[in-house]
Design goal:
- This protein is mostly helical and 459 residues long.
- It folds into two domains: 148 residues, no CATH class; 278 residues, no CATH class.
- Helix 3 crosses helix 6 and helix 9 packs parallel to helix 21.
- The longest helix has 39 residues.
Length: 459
C-alpha cells in the first residue's frame, strides 16, 4: 500500500481518519488506535513482517525497562548489538556471502531472505532512544507509547527519522479540538505537494532514465543518451522529498508534527551545505550517534584533525552502506566524505568562493556521483561516464523536458515547508480550489500510469 496509490488514498486513509475521529474524544483510546492502524498498514505488505516488528518493539522496550531497573549499561549495549545484528542478517547476509565467495573463490551459501520494509528506519529509532536512555536524556515510556514511536505508519517505512524527544510528547493529544481545521488543512497541503513532487516531477524522470541505466548494465550507452542519466539526482530528490512531505502531512492529520527532512538541498553552495539540507533527519542521526563518537574518541591529541577527517569519511562511507549492500553505495558515500573533508580544508585555508561558483561545483559533483548511486555497478557507471563524451542532439533535449522542469523547480523553488507557509497566508478559498484541482490532476495521473514505488522503500 503506497502513499501514492488508490488503495491508500481512497480506502485506508479515509477509513483511518474516520476510525480515529471516533476514538479521538477518548484519551485512553487515541494511542492504542494509532498503534492498531499502524500495524494494519504495515501488515498490508506482508503479514509475517508484523511478527518481526512486534518482537522488535517488545525486546527493546523490555531492555529499556530492565536498564531503568538495574542501571546496567550492558543491557543497552546488548540491545543495540542485537538490533544491528538483525539488520545485518536481513540486509547484508548475501552481500557478505558474495564477498567471501569472491575472496576465497569457493561457493558460499546464500539466504533467501525478504528485506522487511522499514527495518533500517525502525532500527535507528530504537538506537536513538536506547542511547539517549543510557545517557540519562530519555525517560521511560509505556509500551503503547513506545510502540507508536516505532510503528507510527506515516514514518515507519521510510522516515523521516524522528527522535523520541520530537514526537513522544505529541502522542495522545486530542486532534479534533477547537481550531483543528487549520492543522488539517496544513496536513492536506503537505500531502498534495508531496504527491506533486512524486508523481508529476519524480516519476516522469524515472520513466526516462530507467532504460538508460538498463542499457548501461549491458554496455555502452549510444547517441548521447547518457546525459539523461544525470536526471537521477532530481528523481530521487523529488521522490524522497515527496514521500517525506506526505508523511509530514499524514502526521498532522493525526496530531503529530514530524521533523522536516529537506530544505531545498540542490540550492546548496557546498557539499557541507548540501548535507545540512538533504535527508536532514538521517544526517542528524549520523552526526550525533556516529560521527561525534568517532571524532571525539580519545586516541591521542597529536592527530586530532586527522581523526576528525577520518571520522567524516567513515561516517559517509557507512551512510552509503546503509543505503544498500553494494560497493557502489560505499564508493558514493566515501566520495561525499572526501568532498566534505575538502570543503572543510578549503574553509580553513582557502579563500571564500563566490556563491554561484560554489553552487555550480556542488551541482556537478552531485549529478556525477548520483550516477554511481543509481548504476548498481562500477561498470555500468563507467558506461554512463563514457557516454557523456557524446553531446546530446535536439531530439534528446526534447525528451529531457521533464528533467529540465524538475531541475528548474529544484534550483529555483524554496523548500516545501516554506511553500506551505506561504499558501497558508493566502485566501483560503483560492488555495483550497487550487490544491483541489492539483489533487485531481495527481489522481488522474496515477490512474493513467503504472504506480512507482518510492525509491527509499528499498533502503
Amino acid at each position: 500500500m503506497l502513499f501514492n496509490d488508490y488503495p491508500f488514498l481512497l480506502v485506508f486513509l479515509p477509513a483511518a481518519l474516520l476510525i480515529y475521529r471516533v476514538a479521538d474524544p477518548f484519551s485512553r483510546l487515541r494511542i492504542a488506535t494509532l498503534v492498531a492502524l499502524s500495524f494494519v498498514f504495515y501488515s498490508y505488505w506482508n503479514p509475517l513482517f508484523i511478527i518481526l516488528l512486534a518482537a522488535s518493539i517488545l525486546v527493546n522496550w523490555f531492555a529499556a525497562k530492565a536498564y531503568v531497573a538495574t542501571k546496567q549499561g550492558a543491557i543497552i549495549t546488548d540491545a543495540i548489538v542485537a538490533n544491528l545484528a538483525v539488520l545485518a542478517v536481513c540486509k547484508y547476509a548475501n552481500f557478505l556471502a558474495d564477498n567471501l565467495q569472491y575472496l576465497f573463490a569457493s561457493p558460499v551459501r546464500h539466504f533467501d531472505l525478504a528485506l522487511p520494509l522499514g527495518i533500517s528506519f525502525f532500527t535507528f529509532h530504537h538506537i536513538m532512544y536506547l542511547v539517549d536512555l543510557r545517557k540519562g536524556k530519555a525517560p521511560e515510556y509505556t509500551l503503547e507509547r513506545y510502540a507508536l514511536y516505532i510503528a507510527f505508519f506515516p514514518q515507519a517505512i521510510a522516515g523521516p527519522l524522528a527522535r523520541w524527544s520530537e514526537v513522544m510528547h505529541q502522542f495522545g493529544r486530542q486532534v479534533y479540538a477547537p481550531g483543528w481545521q487549520r492543522q488539517f488543512a496544513l496536513g492536506v497541503t503537505f500531502i498534495v505537494i508531496g504527491l506533486i513532487q512524486k508523481t508529476l516531477l519524480g516519476d516522469p524522470i524515472g520513466r526516462i532514465i530507467d532504460p538508460v541505466y538498463a542499457q548501461a548494465k549491458l554496455g555502452a550507452v549510444p547517441d548521447g543518451q547518457a546525459w539523461l542519466a544525470l536526471g537521477f539526482s532530481f528523481q530521487i530528490l523529488f521522490d524522497f522529498a515527496g514521500y517525506s512531505d506526505i508523511a509530514i502531512g499524514l502526521g498532522l492529520l493525526f496530531g503529530v508534527q514530524l521533523p522536516y527532512n529537506f530544505n531545498a538541498p540542490l540550492r546548496a553552495s557546498s557539499v557541507q551545505d548540501l548535507w545540512q539540507r538533504w535527508h536532514m533527519t538521517l544526517m542528524a542521526f549520523l552526526r550525533d550517534y556516529l560521527f561525534h563518537p568517532l571524532a571525539n574518541a580519545r586516541i591521542g591529541r597529536r592527530h586530532r584533525l586527522l581523526q576528525y577527517f577520518a571520522a567524516m569519511i567513515l561516517t559517509m562511507a557507512l551512510c552509503g552502506l546503509w543505503h544498500g549492500p553494494s560497493w557502489t553505495f560505499v564508493l558514493w558515500g566515501t566520495l561525499h566524505g572526501v568532498a566534505l573533508v575538502v570543503v572543510s580544508l578549503w574553509r580553513r585555508y582557502g579563500w571564500p568562493l563566490p556563491f554561484l561558483l560554489g553552487w555550480a561545483m556542488t551541482a556537478v559533483f552531485v549529478l556525477l556521483t548520483g550516477v554511481i548511486f543509481r548504476a548498481g555497478s562500477i561498470e555500468a557507471a563507467w558506461h554512463i561516464y563514457q557516454g557523456l563524451a557524446i553531446l546530446p542532439d535536439l531530439g534528446l533535449i526534447g525528451r529531457a523536458a521533464p528533467i529540465i522542469v524538475a531541475a528548474l523547480c529544484a534550483y529555483l523553488l524554496p523548500a516545501s515547508q516554506e511553500i506551505v507557509a506561504w499558501l497558508n497566508e493566502r485566501p483560503r478559498t483560492v488555495c483550497a480550489a487550487v490544491l483541489g484541482l492539483v489533487a485531481v490532476a495527481v489522481l488522474v495521473n496515477l490512474g493513467d500510469r503504472d504506480v512507482y514505488e518510492f525509491v527509499y522503500f528499498q533502503f
